[in-house]
């Protein structure tokens, strides 16, 4: 795969991709978003173009001028910005207004179409991130019967909302759905679930039923585990083989520290 590029959003996932690509001998051209993408991409990239967020015309222009032929899209960009239209250039504005809706998957698929119109293939980044995917099984803790019941309910509902492109995360307790993730994001959903449940809750995170690994793959890190633990939660359940675990050892250590059971199903 020659002439490799990365459109990088927020978080550690773009960095993991770049580290892996570098180890495999690739020099990656990064299109980074000012104020969103970690400056650390400079350390691992072959070349970096910094672009103001939501300047789609500028990005496509730079992409066409570059030698990039294969591009990955990784990292978070707040979905609520797609509703406010703040900072959009004319291309981005006309693009967003042309979509049938503004669900996350619709927006990303639309951007993929624009990129591929420019002659660049948007790739599945899994070959560079397979080390972050975890098989099913208990990572930390014990899978008690009461937890199994909440896990089954939570993952069933999480799968439905993910497939509807609502969110990926559900908080459950004692057979009751306490909170469902919307546009606010995972952390705020967990906080709301903790407040409403009074502790002892279970967080479940799932991928879409037909998950395109190029688009918004579920991701968890130690901060998620720590948040659950600090708020009195007892478990984090994620979809095995379709969730990126950022630094598994740190996740395990945090889970043990806070007494959080972590299970892939």
UniProtKB/TrEMBL annotation:
Domain LpxI N-terminal: 3-132
Family annotation (InterPro entries): LpxI (IPR053174), LpxI_C (IPR010415), LpxI_C_sf (IPR043167), LpxI_N (IPR041255)
A Pfam entry, by short name: LpxI_C
Limits of the LpxI C-terminal domain: 143-263
Protein name, UniProt field: UDP-2,3-diacylglucosamine pyrophosphatase
Organism: Desulfurobacterium pacificum
């Amino acid at each position: 795969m020659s002439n490799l590029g990365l459109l990088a959003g927020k978080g550690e996932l773009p960095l993991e991709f770049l580290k892996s690509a570098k180890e495999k001998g690739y020099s990656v051209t990064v299109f980074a978003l000012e104020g969103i993408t970690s400056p650390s991409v400079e350390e691992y990239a072959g070349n970096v173009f910094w672009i103001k967020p939501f300047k789609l015309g500028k990005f496509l222009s730079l992409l066409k001028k570059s030698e990039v032929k294969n591009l990955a899209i990784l990292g978070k960009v707040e979905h609520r910005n797609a509703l406010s239209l703040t900072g959009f250039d004319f291309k981005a504005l006309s693009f967003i207004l042309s979509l049938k809706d503004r669900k996350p998957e619709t927006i990303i698929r639309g951007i993929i179409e624009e990129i591929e119109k420019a002659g660049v293939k948007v790739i599945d980044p899994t070959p560079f991130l397979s080390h972050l995917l975890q098989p099913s099984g208990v990572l930390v803790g014990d899978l008690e019967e009461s937890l199994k019941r909440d896990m089954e309910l939570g993952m069933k509902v999480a799968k439905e909302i993910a497939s509807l492109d609502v969110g990926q995360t559900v908080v459950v307790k004692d057979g009751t759905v306490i909170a469902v993730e919307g546009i606010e994001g995972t952390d705020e959903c967990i906080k709301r679930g903790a407040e409403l449940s009074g502790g002892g809750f279970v967080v479940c995170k799932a991928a879409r039923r037909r998950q395109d690994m190029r688009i918004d793959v579920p991701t968890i890190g130690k901060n998620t585990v720590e948040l659950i633990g600090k708020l009195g939660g007892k478990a984090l359940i994620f979809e095995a083989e379709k969730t990126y675990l950022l630094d598994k050892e740190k996740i395990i250590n945090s889970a043990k520290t806070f007494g959080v059971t972590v299970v892939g199903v």
